[in-house]
């Protein structure tokens, strides 16, 4: 018991508890007091990094396998699974997703010029906003979920309560922006039928509300609850209404677009349930996978819709 406690003490944070099992050390599940990591100075950070390296060495000795110690989130002390943020980090590091987003807009602009129903500047603008929201989603998720890896790389300020609070606030705003821009894009594709204009306004106001809550109330518990309730409304009520409109009132050819809703849905479902909890690949990793598949499918289906706009198969749908 003494060795793990000594390793945690080297961080100069008050240790609430530190399990001794190899799996616990591997995951870095030492519980820090509130603000315990925030005030770390460079010499203390160096000691902390040495402690992490020693912890990894102990885990590798116990398991006989290479190990990466993921440190918990600063604000909550909750553990990071091994692959937490790995996909978003890779997409950011390689710049691959940013390239995908730019190509999507460029291809949409080219197709929109020669399409049977050319895209207006406003319609192209919806695609620019949607692409920017997905790019921001990747960028911010990497910043939030990989702060511990930046600490290991020598960027001490990345792993602090202040940095984590800021990243979390932007993460909330990024997710809400994705929900709103996807709603706007596909509502425009459906020619703003029924009450989609009003719902689009409500979703935009919801994103503005998330921005205010994330800035001034998060990380208080009430802030988290209100933000998540707002985003849940955006998905289940607003995007759910869009899906209902497509299924009930749009031409049959448009219904393939509803698949996008059901590609995003499983990730949000497991995120809400906080299940499955796994130290290697848990619910948040499934959430990110679902989100990335949703982004991709939306781009693909939208490009298809530019070439063959389904809504025009049914004259007079408004």
TrEMBL record:
Protein species of origin: Prymnesium parvum (Toxic golden alga)
TM annotation in the entry: 96-116, 122-140, 161-186, 198-218, 230-250, 256-273
Annotated keywords: Membrane, Signal, Transmembrane, Transmembrane helix
Residues in the signal sequence: 1-24
This protein's name: Uncharacterized protein
